[in-house]
Amino acid sequence: MSADYIKRLEQGRARPSLQVLKSLASTLSLAQAEYEHLCILTGHSITQPGRVNRRIGPATGQLLDRLDGVPVAVFDATWTLLRYNSLGAALCGDPSLSARRERNMAWRYFTSTTNCAAEPGRQDQDFEASLVADLRETSSRHPSDDELTALNHRAARGESTVH
Question: Where are the beta strands (DSSP E) in the chain?
Fold first, then answer.
């Protein structure tokens, strides 16, 4: 790395790649927690290989904070609710006291426990097929994620309603 590049990093005018972060962490003998904090500060994911990222980056958090006039919810790749604003809670109920599994919209859909505003008793077969396909595709990108594997088994059992 050049002195100019390090200067731009220090001034916040450059965003380092993960390779640069790993090199810096190694050179500075950073602990794993310090490296992860550095990743978060620079907007990089710190997920384990093969697992779904369940963290919201700073930019997404700032955007959510600014969208107070519309209902907003942020989900991970498994459809688990990570963060929401007050209008989002008003639309689908406040999930703050719910267990992690109960904040997963796919799990709630396949167990018929969703309370989001929708036509009562109506199951949209296109949505269900799309949801199952999305979970399968996500599994191909995150093969080591145990929660996702369990969710796919639930979806496979719920898929029987798709014609």
Answer: 73-75, 81-84
Residue 42 CB partners (closer than 8 Å, separation 6+): 15, 16, 21
Q: Which residues of the chain have pLDDT under 70?
A: 45-49, 113-123, 158-163
Structure tokens at 40: 């978060």
Confidence at residue 46, expressed as pLDDT on a 0 to 100 scale:
64
Separation CA 64–CA 71 (nearest Å): 10
**Angle of helix 146-158 versus helix 125-141 axis, rounded to 10:** 150
Q: Give the pTM.
A: 0.60
Q: Provide the β-strand partners of residue 119.
A: none
Say what the pLDDT of residue 162 is: 36
- How far is residue 95's CA from residue 103's CA, in Å, rounded to a whole number? 6
C-alpha to C-alpha distance for 110 and 128, rounded to whole angstroms? 9
